[in-house]
Amino acid sequence: MNRVLILHYHEIWLKGGNRRFFLSRLMTAVKHALAGLPVQSLEHISDRLILSAQAQDALPEILERLGRVFGIAYIAVAEEVLPEMAALSRAACALMVGKNPPSFAVRAKIAVSNFGMNSMQVERELGRDVLQALRARSSGVRVNLDEPDATCSVEIIPGRGFVYVDRVPGPGGLPAATAGRLVTLLSGGFDSAVAAYKMMRRGAHSVFIHFHGSPRPARGSSASVAQEIVSALTPYQFTSRLYLIPFDSAQRQIVAAAPEKYRVLLYRRLMARMARQVAGAERALGLVTGDSVAQVASQTLHNLAALDHGLDLPVYRPLAGDDKEDILRLARRIGTYRISCEPFEDCCPRFMPRSPAICARPEELVRAEAGLELETLVTDGLEAASALDFKYERGQVSRQEAAPRKLEKLVARRKTAGAQAALRPELEAGPASRLSGGR
């Protein structure tokens, strides 16, 4: 018998005429994820991917890497046999005796039209053989079709048969980079990393942006935590870019010029404005945030509506209906929980108002921003930004400094537009006014 992995997908089934595109992306993602490992072949046969390894001892690492490939519903570790009842029975009995469950079921899928038996007949005949083999060891074994302790699965495709008991869940969703690009506002906490993962699982490619301040000596910088989070998420989408924007100066200007109760909301509106510009440079189709409705004061429905007012780009909040336990559970599973537990200095809680607004209206925030030079703050923030590119290859994540020319061009255009806007009133006033103003 030859051991193979059967990669099953489910959502791709729904894609109709676009199925070929998604399958192509899924196979590319599988090959990328397994680069450097001894994979003998990867075939697409009868709506399943069949992977053969050159060395059986590589299977644990292969399974570990496949566990991060979006689009895979589950992975079956199967024995390949001849597609005939005698061979299927021997394999099924051997596997189930190894498991020795108190109860079991047999499930069959037949993808050929000339096998001579339907799936129910195969299940019935193999079930009898397995029951006899198990009762030779324990007389209490029984068949349970509703909630079995173990399930023996049989799949028959042209020229090949597979039998398995063990299967590993995949992440599901849609293959990486099949839905367009989004910009994720990434903090160092649990929520935004999980939000990014959820959108990546839907095929969106995430560009990350992190706003950081100057940390106190007792705590680390949130920028380093953000980098570790992006490193943990990059294997799911293979490449990532992280923009790091210092936010100290902007915060201090908001604290000095705006009403105290609106501070956090104004921080977030300014961040959204900068992220909007990055989204334009990166040709992204929306923003992603880690908001969970009513989790904190800035995330009430009234405040979220006020934050989005006037922003000409969709804001996706995949955690809107999740509670903290839901979020922490997923953070542990995707590998960001431990990173977000590290002590760091986040910029939003700094200069926290004593009584933050919980039902702000858009017009109130507009008035609160009246004393701020918003366009200048956005331009200065983007000009001070740095960027890192991350790449997942052969099981490792590398990072290097990036110099995105599109952001540099954006900043140059904004500075030129700002200078022209500053000159416009003087030019419109005429030569006489300019001369008298000079005196």
CATH H level of the largest domain: which superfamily?
A: HUPs
> How can the largest sheet be summarized?
9 strands, mixed
CATH class term of the largest domain = Alpha Beta
β-sheet strand percentage: 15-25%
Number of domains: 3
Spans of at least 5 consecutive residues whose pLDDT stays below 50 are 432-439
Task: Specify the CATH architecture of the largest domain.
Answer: 3-Layer(aba) Sandwich
Number of helices: 15
Global morphology: elongated
Helical/strand content category? alpha/beta
The overall pLDDT, averaged over residues, is 92
**Do you know the CATH topology of the largest domain?**
Rossmann fold
- Alpha-carbon distance between the termini? 96 Å
Radius of gyration, in angstroms, nearest whole number: 29 Å
Helix percentage range: 40-55%
Number of strands: 18
Q: Looking at the chains present, what oligomeric state does this protein adopt? A: single chain
